[in-house]
Amino acid sequence: MNLPRRKFLRLAAGAVALLPFSRNASAQAYPTRPVRLIVPFPAGGQIDIIARLIGQWLSERFGQQFFVDNRPGAGGNIAAEAVVHSPADGHTLLMAGGWNAVNATLFDKLDFDFVRDTAAVASINRIPIVLEVNPSFPARTVPELIAYARSNPAKANLATPPKGTAPYMSAVLFTMMSGVDFVQVPYRSEAQMVTDLLGGQVQVALGGISAGIEQIRAGKLRALAVSTAARLEALPDVATIGETLPGFETSGWCGVVAPKNTPNEVIERLNKEINTALADPQFRSRLADLLAPVLAGSPVEFSKFIADETERWGRVIRTANIKPD
Questions:
Q1: pLDDT digits over 288-299, tens only?
Q2: Bond preceding residue 31 cis, omega within 30 of 0
Q3: What is the C-alpha R_g of the chain?
Q4: What is the pTM of this model?
Q5: Domains of the chain (ranges, CATH numbers)
Q6: Contact (Cβ atoms closer than 8 angstroms) between residue 93 and residue 301
Q7: Tens-place pLDDT, residues 12-58
Q8: Which of 211, 47, 161 minimizes the C-alpha distance to 171?
Q9: Going edge to edge, which strands form the sheet with 66-70?
Q10: Do 199 and 159 contact (CB within 8 A), yes or no?
Q11: Are 212 and 130 in contact (CB under 8 A)?
Q12: Which residues neighbour 182 within 8 Å (Cβ) at sequence distance 6 or greater?
C-alpha cells in the first residue's frame, strides 16, 4: 500500500519524535527478565562472594533477579568471551578484573578486544597484595629482602599465584624495579601457596591479602610490605613496597562491564545503583570484612581505568617477555 506523501511525512515525523521516549521507556523497564552476572572463577572465592553481594543488592533495587553464573577457565577469558558475544541489552554482565587487562597482552590469539568490545559499567573494589615470608626467613623489611636476594641468588625464590594474576604481575614488577632476579614459583592456587609458605617449602610469596591475613595476624607468617600506594587499615604497621621502591603500586581490582553498545541509559542506571551500594555503610562493612577497599566511580572513569591498566601491564608483559602457560 502506498501512502500519500503528506501522510507519510507526518507519520515519519511522529516516529522520530517518539524515539527518545521509546529509548527512555526501554531503560525504565530494564531489566525485563533475570540478569546474569558472569564470574570467571569457581563459587566460594573472594571475587564470587563480592559478585553475589552486588547481585543481591541489585536484585533488591531493581525488583528482578541478578544471579551469578560461574564460568571459570582460561584465566578469565571464557567468561569474558561469553559476555562479549551476548546481546547488548544489559541482561548479561561480567565481573571483570585486573586479569582482563593483563590477558589483553598475555594472550595473543583472543577473538575479542576487551577494551573495544566491552562497556564499563562500574568499578567496585581493589584487592591489596601483600609481600609475606615464613617467620624463619631472615629478612624483616623490603631492603633486607633485596639485600638477601642479591647475596643468595640461588635461594631467592618468590612464590605467586598463577600467571596473569595481580600477585604474579606484582612479582614481575617487583623484580624489574628492584633489579633482583628472583626465581618465580607460580602456584595453581593461593591456598596451596600459603600452605607451602607456612611449611617452609618456600620462603617468600606475593599474594592477595585475604589468603594470608589470618596467618599474619596469628604470627605464623610475617608481612614485609603491602603493594598499595598507602598503608592498609588492616595492617597499619606494615610498610608499602613503594616506601623502598618509589612509584611501586599495584593491586587487583573488580568491577562490572557489559557488552559494547549496551544502552547508555542502562549503564547509567546500573552505575548509580552500584555506587549507592558502595556508599552504604553496611555494604562497605561487608567489603571491609573481605579486605576489599571500595573503588567507586563513573562509567567514564572506569573505562579510562581499564584502558590505563591494559596499557600499563601490556608494557610490563612485553618488557619481561611473559608468555602464557
A1: 999 999 999 999
A2: yes
A3: 23
A4: 0.88
A5: 34-127+251-320 (3.40.190.150), 129-243 (3.40.190.10)
A6: no
A7: 344 444 444 444 445 568 999 999 999 999 999 999 999 999 999 99
A8: 161
A9: 66-70, 35-39, 92-97, 252-259, 118-127
A10: no
A11: yes
A12: 149, 156, 157, 158, 171, 174, 175, 204
Side chain identity at 198, as an amino acid letter? L
- The pLDDT of residue 53: 98
Q: What is the DSSP string of 254-296?
A: EEEEEETT--HHHHHHHHHHHHHHHH-HHHHHHHHHTT--B--
* Contact predicate 235/214, CB 8 Å: no
Q: Which amino acid is at 180?
A: V
CA 294/CA 251 separation, integer angstroms: 12
The whole-angstrom separation of Cα 316 and Cα 230 is 22
The Cβ of residue 109 has, within 10 Å, a number of other Cβ atoms equal to: 5
Burial group, residue 237, by CB count within 10 angstroms (0-12, 13-18, 19+): exposed
